[in-house]
């Protein structure tokens, strides 16, 4: 089996989950998020683009229902033994196969939690599932039960995040080596991803963001490449990925002579991220982090140029996003605890002057001050 964790760690995770299920009075949980299945069993696939679910009973019994294409995948990459196949056919409704499995598992009339808020469940599947189970038992939205358990990283998980951070640094080194007037974004992007693959890393859960000129103000990937001008700006957001664990970084690199606005926005980013480091620790909340971000940026008169979130939890994630549910936004009561891997980003997009500036890195929380996982300082990068 291609397992990245010891079986004892999987057993510990299952024990934590079933304890939480009993607190929530759940007889069973239907997991549709691929990262939940990976965390609990090691199951590693992109087959969640089709219907599949992992049934977990409060007594620790587990059963996977998936397609034939993932049968060997599940056997090879996970600790799962009870694997059921639904058959591809015209007008197939795999939720009926699932209901029959739930009957076999003696769950008729049970209180069942479901992971609805995940890319592993489409709206169509949710409607079919509700139609099958509404009169079958009591259905509860349990979208964030496993997600919250995954916030705290084990020592092995921390080691994977640290390795991902090394790969992220390697990618930045590769980008800096190529960034100059006339450089092609395509070459820079290829070098960054190549550095991660060469270091034994994985595909990230979403595309790297690269944009120069006016596109440097974007914070999403888009198709199309350009070559850098003699005076230009290049925004990069990327993540090292190892065993699906991510460590993200973000930088805006200035090519040629920086403008006064570049320097002004960089100073705001640097001041804010250093202030956030003082509250990124136990005793504070995710909302407190955002409040610090908003206060400093807004005091500098940059309120309309910032975003309404300034980071999020990171971990083992699958496409289409490496972002976890838990984000730094206004009012988020999620407590910060030790051994969380958290990405803090400052993104300022001044559309009035066409100036971009970003600064971001991943931290590991401790009992006191957070530990930045990057070997790169937060210095201004001008080339």
Rounded Rg: 22 Å
Order of helices and strands: HEHEEHEHEHEHHHEEEHHEEEE
Number of helices: 10
The main sheet comes to: 7 strands, antiparallel
Keywords: Aminopeptidase, Hydrolase, Protease
GO molecular function, one term: aminopeptidase activity
InterPro entries: Creatin/AminoP/Spt16_N, Creatinase/aminopeptidase-like, Creatinase_N, Pept_M24, Peptidase_M24B
Organism: Rhizobium changzhiense
Provide the descriptors you would attach to this structure in a database record.
alpha+beta, seven-stranded antiparallel beta sheet, six-stranded mixed beta sheet
What does this molecule look like?
Keywords: Aminopeptidase, Hydrolase, Protease. GO terms for molecular function: aminopeptidase activity. This protein is an alpha+beta fold and 383 residues long. The chain is built from 10 helices and 13 strands. Helix content is 33%, strand content 20%. Strands 7, 8, 9, 10, 11, 12 and 13 form a 7-stranded antiparallel β-sheet that branches. Strand 12 (355-364) and strand 13 (371-372) form a beta hairpin. The protein starts with 6 loop residues before the first helix and ends in an 11-residue tail after the last strand.
């Amino acid at each position: 089996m291609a397992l990245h964790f010891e079986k004892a760690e999987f057993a510990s995770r299952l024990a934590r989950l079933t304890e939480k299920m009993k607190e929530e009075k759940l007889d069973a949980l239907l997991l549709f998020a691929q990262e939940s299945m990976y965390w609990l069993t090691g199951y590693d696939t992109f087959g969640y683009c089709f219907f599949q679910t992992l049934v977990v009973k409060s007594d620790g019994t587990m059963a996977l229902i998936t397609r034939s294409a993932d049968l060997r995948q599940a056997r090879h990459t996970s600790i799962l033994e009870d694997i059921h196949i639904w058959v591809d056919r015209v007008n197939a409704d795999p939720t009926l196969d699932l209901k029959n499995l739930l009957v076999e598992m003696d769950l008729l009339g049970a209180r069942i939690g479901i992971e609805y808020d995940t890319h592993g469940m489409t709206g169509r599947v949710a409607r079919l599932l509700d139609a099958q189970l509404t009169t079958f038992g009591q259905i509860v939205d349990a979208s964030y039960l496993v997600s919250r358990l995954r916030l705290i990283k084990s020592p092995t998980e921390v080691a994977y995040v640290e390795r991902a951070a090394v790969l992220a640094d390697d990618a930045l080194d590769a980008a800096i080596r190529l960034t100059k007037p006339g450089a092609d974004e395509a070459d820079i992007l290829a070098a960054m991803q190549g550095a991660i693959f060469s270091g034994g890393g994985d595909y990230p859960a979403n595309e790297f963001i690269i944009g120069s000129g006016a596109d440097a103000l974007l914070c999403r990937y888009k198709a199309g490449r350009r070559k850098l001008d003699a005076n230009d700006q290049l925004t990069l957001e990327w993540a090292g990925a190892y065993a699906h664990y991510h460590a993200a970084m973000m930088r805006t690199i200035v090519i040629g002579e920086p403008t006064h606005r570049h320097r002004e926005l960089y100073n705001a980013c640097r001041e804010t991220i250093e202030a956030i480091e003082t509250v990124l620790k136990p005793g504070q909340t995710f909302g407190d982090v955002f409040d610090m971000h908003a206060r400093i940026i807004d005091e500098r008169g940059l309120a309309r140029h910032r975003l309404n979130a300034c980071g999020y939890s990171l971990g083992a994630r699958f496409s289409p996003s490496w972002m976890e549910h838990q984000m730094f936004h206004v009012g988020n009561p999620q407590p910060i605890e030790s051994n969380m891997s958290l990405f803090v980003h400052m993104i300022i997009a001044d559309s009035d002057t066409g100036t971009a500036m970003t600064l971001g890195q991943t931290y590991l929380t401790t009992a006191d001050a957070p530990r930045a996982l990057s070997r790169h300082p937060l210095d201004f990068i001008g080339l």
